[in-house]
């Protein structure tokens, strides 16, 4: 549980901070990308590869712990569909909150982007698969130990 709390605090600090209020841009309208891959392609054409990798891989890595911890902490959410729905809700909430922060501050702190949601979900799925894999290996090890003890 402590690991999940640390993850949640870190997630909040990464996706929402820093928030810049100055100088406000009175005519600023927050940017929203609803076209999958559009901003990633623009980023690939205009930025060094390390920036692209940081953005893409960072968004994936950001949600791996969520997919890992949720089925462990919330036993009733150990089914993939529940974890996926929760991850989707969290990711969409983050994008809406980032848009709201930009709208209220009249400053481009973050961009609301469908690609972030897609990449976050990929990370969530990876985290869920890692957790399931560890659980299966642990189950198999227990099974083998029990079988070996019965033979002795």
Q: Brief description of this entry?
A:
The chain has 152 residues and is mainly alpha-helical. The protein is 74% helix and 3% strand.
Describe the structure.
The chain contains 5 helices and 2 strands, in the order H-E-H-H-H-E-H. A two-stranded parallel ribbon has the order 1-2. The chain has helices spanning 2-16, 38-46, 49-73, 80-105, 114-151, and strands at 32-33, 112-113. The mean pLDDT is 89. It is 74% helix and 3% strand. The protein has one domain (2-20, 33-151).
Summing up helix and strand content along with how strands pair, one would put the structural category as mainly alpha
Mean pLDDT, to the nearest integer, reads 89
Number of helices: 5
Biggest pleated sheet = 2 strands, parallel
Rough outline: elongated
Number of strands: 2
Give the end-to-end Cα distance, rounded to a whole number of Å. Answer: 38 Å
Strand order of the largest sheet: 1-2
Q: Spans with pLDDT under 50 lasting ≥5 residues?
A: none
Indicate the percent of residues in helices.
over 70%
């Amino acid at each position: 549980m402590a690991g999940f709390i640390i993850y949640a605090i870190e997630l909040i600090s990464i996706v929402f901070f820093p928030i810049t209020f100055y100088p406000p841009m009175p005519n600023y309208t927050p940017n929203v990308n609803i076209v999958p891959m559009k901003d990633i392609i623009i980023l690939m054409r205009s930025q060094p590869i390390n920036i692209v990798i940081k953005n893409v891989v960072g968004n994936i890595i950001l949600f791996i712990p969520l997919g890992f911890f949720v089925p462990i902490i919330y036993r009733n959410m150990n089914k993939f569909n529940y974890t996926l729905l929760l991850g989707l809700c969290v990711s969409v909430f983050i994008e809406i909150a980032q848009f709201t922060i930009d709208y209220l501050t009249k400053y481009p702190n973050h961009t609301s982007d469908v690609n972030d949601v897609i990449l976050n979900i990929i990370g969530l799925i990876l985290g869920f698969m890692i957790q399931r894999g560890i659980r299966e290996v642990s189950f198999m090890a227990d099974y083998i130990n029990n079988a070996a003890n019965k033979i002795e």
